[in-house]
Amino acid sequence: DDDIFSSAFCENSEKLINVHLFALAAKYYSLSNLGVCTPLEDVLEALKGDSEGATGIKLDEFMNNKKSHEVQVMSELVDGIANYCGIKQVIDIGSGKGYLSSFLSMQYNLKVYGIDSSSSNTNGAHERNRKLKKHWRTYQSRGKEKLKSLSLEKAHDKPVESEINCKTINEELLNNANSLQNQDQVIIQDLLPCGFTEMATLETNTEAEADLVAGTQSHETKLSEEVLAILNVLPADAVEDFSSSHTCVELCEEDKVQRKMTSLQTKARKSSESNLYFPLTSCITAETELNDIITDLEDCMMVGLHTCGDLAANTLRIFTAKPEIKAVCSVGCCYHLLSEQFENQEECHDQVWGFPMCQYLKDKGWCCGRNARMSACLALERVAVGQMLPTESLFYRAVLQVIIEEIYGVTKSDRHVGKTFSKSSSFIDYVRRSLKKLELDDSKLSDSCIMDYYKKYKDRMNELEAFNMLKVVLAPCIEVLILLDRLCYLKEQENIAWSGLVKLFDPVKSPRCYAVIALK
């Protein structure tokens, strides 16, 4: 009830008087409590049909824990959507270092175009993809040898059984051939009817091949984890037929033709696989014509893993406008960089804004403001498990702001302090480094003057921490507003068959964990 929650603030002063009620209200209006999200399990189940889900994959060797978690979860969903829509082309917007793009192409055999505005990211993605493939080929070779030895052991067991049976049947004849007891294959070939040996050997090898293919998953559990990680990452049919080289008999013409066709298909696939991922450099806006960037654009889907600021909104706009794009899966981030239509009073009719997107909020002239958008980037779940806010660095930055305003008269600047705190040895060092970054003359300030500011506000550090904790509690409510705006925009479109919000990631590992998904 809104009336109950409003009593968290004083009616006259509008100051917060009931922190507990404030926290309850924030939780009530969070996305997890509103019941508007579609569970990931339900989406995967609906997309799956008769196909089996992806095998669990470990990529920690190539990515950090956070990125590995994100790529594995999102790629399975993207593959499910692609299969459901019958498409093989994926456009990864804001692809960055190419982790998701590389994985989608190698694990799921999708043709991926990774588009990023930074040429250094694109070049880095090229080089990283080359090294990744080199690693995978090495591990594939190791895995091949291990699987080969396993298949040889399995194939070796069956001829022994055949030999025992043959020895039983031909016991009398074998008794007369003691000199050949250590040459079992020769004995069998000499004693069995013509052609029987070839049939038995062919059958044994065929069974061994079938068992090898059927039992690959069970064999994998016996391999080392590093080999498993690579074998699982490869397309399902990328592992060559190891047992074919062990066939000792002459194949019939039909088998020869079949083997040759399989070999040609494997070679063709391998030559094409090297071109499944294409990193491209381009700045994407709402007006971007994808045909100008991708010459062989076909029915495809757009994805974005932590698309920054307006890029998340523009991804959805391009999706709705282009008939070739059949689906979208977008996880946004950096809400503080969103452009807002009603934040400034200046009229810019031609500009496309990041917020709001839906007509409902546009009609209300809704505005968040930079402070609220900054708060939306905070990670409540991380704080809840003990990963506290960096209070000291926030305190340094807050006192610096006072110094800049009082000493230099600066209230706004296009320049940024950045990650100066981690490089600073003291508060004095921090202030001087920051002033240089802001191109302000630090000779105006003595060390004692800087320390006077520090001492003046030091006792209010707890106050600052409490204030930031309230911002953290409120963060999910502001994020809800931004995400529901995007969902409502999709609901307003006539060409969308289904759209929803899905919690993809563990929010402790990856705080921006919600995906906006839609199908034409």
Automatic annotation (TrEMBL):
Methyltransferase domain mapped to chain residues: 66-341
SUPFAM superfamilies in the cross-refs: S-adenosyl-L-methionine-dependent methyltransferases
InterPro entries named among the record's database cross-references: Methyltranfer_dom (IPR025714), METTL25 (IPR052220), SAM-dependent_MTases_sf (IPR029063)
Pfam families: Methyltransf_32
Protein name: MET25 protein
